[in-house]
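Predict structure. Chain length: 730.
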Amino acid sequence: METTHNTTSFKGSFKDWLHAKGKDPKQTESSKSRLLRLIKSAGENAANTIRTRRIWGDDSLTAFNAFSMFYGVERSIYQVTNSFLVPATMGGETDKQAVVLIGPPGAGKSDYVTRIKNLYRTADPIPFVKGSRVHDNPLNLFFMVQLVAEKQADAELESGKDFDFAARVDEIKLEILESLELSKLLDFDDASVKSICSNAGQPNTLAGIAKLDANDLVSAVVAGLGLPRSTRNAIGTPEPLVQDLALGVYQRPGKPVALKDMQIDSMRFTDDFSGSSGIVDVAEVQPLNFDIAEWIGSENLANMGRFQEGDPRLINLNGAFNKGNRGLVILTEGLKNPPEAQRVLLEALQGRRVKLPAPLAGSCFFDGLIIIHSNEGEYDKFMKVRENEPYADRFFRIWFPYPLEMSQAEKVIRKFWNGSEFGKPVAQGGVHVDPDVFPYLARMEVLTRIDKNSTVPLNVKADAYDGRGTRERGMGMKVSVQDLRERASTREGLEGQSPRETNKVMQLVAAKVQGRGDTVTTALLRDAFRDWFKQTITDEKKLEFMMRIIGNELDEVRRKNLSQLVLASLVDGFKDECQQTWDKYLDNVRAWASNSSVKSSAGYSKSQVGGDEAFMREIESDPDWGVTSAEAPKFRAEIQAAVNQYITEHGAKNIPYTCHQAVQKCLERFVLKKVRTGARLFSSSSARSDEDRRKLSAAKFRLVEAGFSEWSAEELLREAEENSDFLVER
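Prediction complete.
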């Protein structure tokens, strides 16, 4: 959920701004602090947090509502937030580093960066020094106190006065601070203020602060305003145009603007398509086409000959790092850029400065979050070049792999599919998708992504990664997902089937079935992927592996899932019975959580305190999920979180049994234990009675209710009839 902001923009003098807004951390926070605040203000997604912690076995992981539209990459997003942004806001080393996102195509890197852009755009307007081409932080003006005082003292010396220059500079500095009425704002008893003044041998008073050097003076003022260290790190000397206004050299010769009267304006973050204020995306450039002006600005040719040498109006500060100051700079495929561009990047990170374009000399202060997204090959190639060694300490690498959880991979595939016209209802020109299609495709993707060098069968490993505590047939011990992850290659998830390619094949099938069933089925997809891989994969071993997945692992699970769907269709009231069983299970889970008893409608206890443990365990110990007694508390907590999330999103009191995939499968299998005898209907088509035919007609109706089209329901029942072992328990 996006946060609604009502903060009004500020327009007025620096002095007025200081007294109205100067002590508000949100006004002058660093670019990284701002993003962290926006992420945390959206809150934690409790359901995703519990699921992620259980699957990864790491109780420190947190899933954020701000990124709830991303599936299966919660761990990577958490690392950016907690391992990069949090230390950066505490003054840690990551404050001088760039985030480098590395992952395969289609993993979601670009979408993640786009989401960060959108978060910046939800921020309140931020104040800046009016006229600054890089949107200088108002606090940057405190760096001018020393320069203005020295300029004024020099002018007094030139007029013939005789005095101690250093002492006079300190007097003028105090006059400037007093003109801002800082005594009313600063906490002189703040520990940092005391420490800074004490280390310089000065009292913790306004007069003492005035005698500090420029850097310590700014540090003392920031601390006295009660602002965090990250804010101090995010401010520096303002750009030349602002300096000139305060010094009165070029724009207003001899008529400087007093610091207290410098004007403050406000801006909202906008991206490349709407002005590039604080958000800039820089595409890769080839060495032959590289123009440093796109990075640091350029000479203002229109003003050549109009202004004297040194005038800040001789340059345009319209480069990517100038426009991205105080916000976000994105370098798409940034590691492919030439050395000149990398040097600008290093200076922006290490020195917090961006070189001024010729003919001016010097640098411009920079505060911004830099994100580079690349691929593994480009990153390795870049880091192997000896000249690039300095960047090793300035890059914070985050692996952004494909999702390895089938439930999350399924959501990604759905997202791609719904982005096309095919995703519309059939009546509106779209194509129907059978309910087993997305789980089928998700399993296929995960099977191609997980480490193959394992003693555990691929299907068992894929189930384990999805949180299903399974056992291989004949295995006494349950598969440990943590052990599997520890044994896996560090590159697991960095290659395999891309969701974009999956969607491409889905669309090929969809195009073929329009007007001929209008339905995408797993049977059609199985054949389509066989043809696709034969046409696109040139490596024989890889082709053999992909064909084996389709013919073995996928086909095994497909038959198992479809047989359960067919059996469920043969049961009158199957969904109702599943719902009733779910309601009973949920009542018991709530009783377990509150250490109470399940109550009847009349208020009588229907179970022992803590719920009916035997009943709950019968549901949870389903062989496909295998939740152990030790794991039951976490599993039940996850169920409750999913229920709460459903209530929050839908406002519903009657919670459907489909609200949590694991429980849905467990409940359906629990109910299906009673109906295996339904398989006899397919033993001999010639011996069917009128009653049998009525049941099959009802089965088709229920399959349609379950999400199949009439055409695909008939095809599925025909497949069950033609394969004698289709409904055999596996």
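Summary: The CA atoms of residues 31 and 327 lie 5 Å apart.
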